[in-house]
């Protein structure tokens, strides 16, 4: 909104902007105050991103599948909260083979297959129904 002044913003918007600046300034886990890291800040070893957990667990095919939708990018965001129903690599290959695909390259070249992978990825990510509130 061009020409907007601080006085024209709602109090909620101003608070959100101020909190964003404060949280962005926390460069290390040590800089965070007690109670900040409620779920996942993604900045310290105790709070990995969902994508790094998938990588550590060897779920490369699921990570690949998520990248056909916006879910792949979201799982790389620090603090993103969702429940992932992560199928094994074997399960994803079984589904691809059943659909007639034998390689990642064949899927990547076929728009229909990419759309199917995007849908499957979205079906395996459950976001909270209502925002979580920290007391």
From TrEMBL:
Signal sequence segment: 1-31
Domain of life: Eukaryota
Keyword annotations of the record: Signal
Name the record gives this protein: FAS1 domain-containing protein
Naturally occurring in which organism (per UniProt): Gonium pectorale
Taxonomic classification: Eukaryota, Viridiplantae, Chlorophyta, core chlorophytes, Chlorophyceae
């Amino acid at each position: 909104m061009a020409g907007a002044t601080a006085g024209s913003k709602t109090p909620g918007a101003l608070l959100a902007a101020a909190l964003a600046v404060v949280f962005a300034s926390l460069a290390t886990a040590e800089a965070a105050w007690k109670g900040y890291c409620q779920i996942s800040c993604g900045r310290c070893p105790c709070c990995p991103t969902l994508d790094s957990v998938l990588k550590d667990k060897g779920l490369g095919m699921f990570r690949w599948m998520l990248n056909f939708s916006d879910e792949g990018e979201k799982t790389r965001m620090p603090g993103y909260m969702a429940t992932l129903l992560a199928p094994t690599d074997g399960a994803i290959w079984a589904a691809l083979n059943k659909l007639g695909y034998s390689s990642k390259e064949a899927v990547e070249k076929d728009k229909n297959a990419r759309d199917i992978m995007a849908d499957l990825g979205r079906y395996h990510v459950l976001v909270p129904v209502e925002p979580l509130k920290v007391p």
